[in-house]
Amino acid sequence: MRLIRTACCIALTLPLFAHSAPAHVHGVAKMDLAVDGNKLTLSMEMPLDNLVGFEHLPKTDKQKAALAEAMASLKNAADLFVPTVAAGCKVDTVDVGDPFPGGKAKADGHADVDADYVFRCAQPAALKGLETKLFKRFGRLHRVDVQRATAAGQGAATLTPEQPGMNW
Amino acid sequence: MMAMLKLAAHSAWARRLTLGVTLFSIAISTAMLLSVERIRLNARQSFTQSVSGVDLVVGARTGGVQLMLYSVFHVGQATNNIEWTSFAALAGHPAVAWAIPLSLGDSHRGFAVLGTSAEYFPRFRYGDGRWLKFSDGKAFSRVFEAVIGSEVAARLNYRVGDSITLTHGFGNQALTEHADKPFAIVGILEATGTAVDRTVHISLEAMTALHLDWVAGAPVPGLSIPQNYVEKFDLRPKEITAALIGLKSRADVFRMQRFVNEFRGEPLLAVMPGVALDELWQTIGMVERALFAVSALVIVVGLCGLVSTLLAGLNERRRELAILRALGAGPGDVFMMLAIEGVLVTTAGAMLGVAVLYAATHLAAGWLLAQLGVVIAAQWLSPAEFGLLSLVVLTGLLASLVPGWRAWRMSLADGLTPRV
User: Fold this and answer.
1) Overall number of domains in chain A
2) Which of A154, A160, A167 to mutate to test binding with chain B, by most B CBs within 10 Å of its CB?
3) Residues β-bridged to residue B52
4) Whole-number Å distance between alpha carbons of A73 and A135
5) Which of A3, B240, B272, B388 is most exposed, with minimal Cβ within 10 Å?
């Protein structure tokens, strides 16, 4: 009994020593939102599972097509994010990372997708919120945890299919 | 109408005991509803006003909320410290505009002692970006000098020039007193309404100096380094509790956060204060709503009491109402009289409730500030509170329609025919 307890204690402390990997929770995406001057930056990070339902290298033609389609729609920023219309924000750059860098899967069997978007806004003072259509496009995504830093200060928000928008 | 009002008032006065009790219960429930609302708002404000202009708070890896609680609000303790070398590496990062080290753990008569750099005073901001100001004296410049917050000064009656000793940890034992190394108070800060008011600030070097002749959390027997020799030792701190970081560009905050969280030297955590506070409120939000629901229910119970008192009173008042009818009052007048009575009791109850609220906040303000760090501002009723009050009175009006309707239905003959 005591041995088990000791083993558990050691097991619990192990993650403290290892260099921690970013959390990988299926159904959840992380988003960092920054507004600086006229620039609106969105950085997303999520498990590939949210987009296509698998995290291994695509094997069948169907899986390949699904992956290609998901990556393409992830690149279509104007369809995924709607900043306050009055701010007049236009997509500037989009950078979607390859879930399988070098064509190889990671050793732990998980795959993540990073996506960075930059918008330029004509009226940054009018930029007061953002709505996302990610949930409509990706049915396996259930929650986006947002951290934001804007001129109005910092804040946190949780976006869900029922509440896909936030204001600051 | 005037006559009806007068009659209702006189009639109510005749039944002042039962109505008084009802009025009291409405007053208590109103006071409770308003105070829950007020504490909720003030607590939120106290927390969000506590720190401003800080982009990141860095500490040992733990929960974001916990890190905020101990580093900014001085509530609870750190599980681990961070190495000075890590702090130096972060402070030297090209994206960092300034970095202030914080070292906690000692106390002075229940007030937290914060070891920091002199840069803390011109850098720290609170509220909507307000700076710290000295009401007396100046920042510390030498080792055994201390700057105290306004509340420390007020409660312990300290002035610039006074001498104080610090306690190791938060105990009260004489053994852990740093009695051999007293500090001179050189500055008193103006009131901020934040944790700063309840803090004794000393330099990091002083923090090290205090513990020079200590090993493993206790003074070494027989070893005592006199105060005037202390400065010959290397007083550079080896570890600190947390750090406040300001960045050159706001947009760098996420990159810097990632840099800290993946720091090579040791496990560190960087939280954005605004994000951690929002998360804290998302957690507390449930409790808030529960408290609010309970006080709303208390109001409902109070109003049910009102209705039942009025209904029960109808039986006693058969004769009174019948005489009124006989004197020419229509059923509508009787209905009005009952409704007016209900509204009068609710309104008076709500007003008494506001009085109770003011008395209670006046009495409890000091305790709330000392125990929870929540500043309850003595303020006039806010529009939202007025809204709540009118809702209470409106519900009271609706509730008193029930006995009014009963009285309306009672026939003229009802109260005049003696029943055996």
Assistant:
1) 1
2) A154
3) B125
4) 12
5) A3
- Burial of B175 per CB tally in 10 Å (0-12, 13-18, 19+): exposed
- Dump strand ranges (E) for B86-152: 96-103, 107-108, 111-116, 125-126, 130-131, 134-137, 145-148
**Residue A44: which of A52, A53, A34 has the closest Cα?**
A34
3-state secondary structure (DSSP) of residue B168: coil
Distance from C-alpha of A59 to C-alpha of B87, rounded to nearest angstrom:
48
Q: Domain range for residue A111?
A: 22-167
Most A CBs within 10 Å, among B128, B245, B272, B286, to test the A interface: B272
* Burial class of residue A16 in the structure, from the number of CB atoms within 10 Å of its CB (0-12 exposed, 13-18 middle, 19+ buried): exposed
Chain B residues with CB under 8 Å of A114 CB are none
B interface with A, Cβ–Cβ below 8 Å:
52, 55, 61, 249-251, 253-254, 261-262, 267, 272-276, 278-279, 282
Q: How many CB atoms lie within 10 A of CB B245?
A: 24
Say if A141 falls within a structural domain: yes
* Residue B413 binned pLDDT confidence (cut-offs 50, 70, 90): low
Contact indicator for A97, A113 with CB cutoff of 8 Å: yes
Strands (E) in B220-342, as ranges, are 239-240, 242-247, 268-271
Residue A104 has a CB neighbour count (10 Å cut-off) of 8
Domain that holds residue B98: 51-279
Q: How far is it, in rounded angstroms, from Cα B58 to Cα B370?
A: 26
What residue in B sits closest to A39 (Cα-Cα)? B251
Residue B247's Cβ-side half-sphere holds a number of Cα atoms within 13 Å equal to 18
Q: State pLDDT tens for residues A46-98.
A: 999 999 988 888 889 999 999 999 999 999 999 999 999 999 999 999 999 98
- Amino acid letter for position B349: G
- Cβ distance A156 to B279 less than 8 Å, yes or no, reads yes
Query: What integer best gives the mean pLDDT of chain B?
Result: 84
User: Could A154 and B273 be called an inter-chain contact, meaning their C-beta atoms sit closer than 8 Å?
Assistant: yes
> What phi, psi does A157 have (nearest 5°)?
-150, 155
Same domain as B176, residue B285: no
For residue A71, give the 3-state DSSP assignment.
Answer: helix
Give the residue from B279, B309, B340 where a domain finishes: B279
Please say if the pLDDT value at position A31 is more than 90. yes
pLDDT by residue (tens digit) across B356-405? 988 888 888 777 766 666 666 667 788 888 888 898 888 888 888 888 88
The last residue of one of the domains, among B260, B279, B298, is B279
Nearest to A147 among B250, B267, B275 (CB): B275
Taking CA A32 as the corner, what is the angle to CA A28 and CA A35, rounded to the nearest 5 degrees? 150
CA distance B186 to B141: 9
Backbone φ and ψ of B158, nearest 5°: -100, 150
Give B384's contacts (C-beta < 8 A, 6+ positions apart): B37
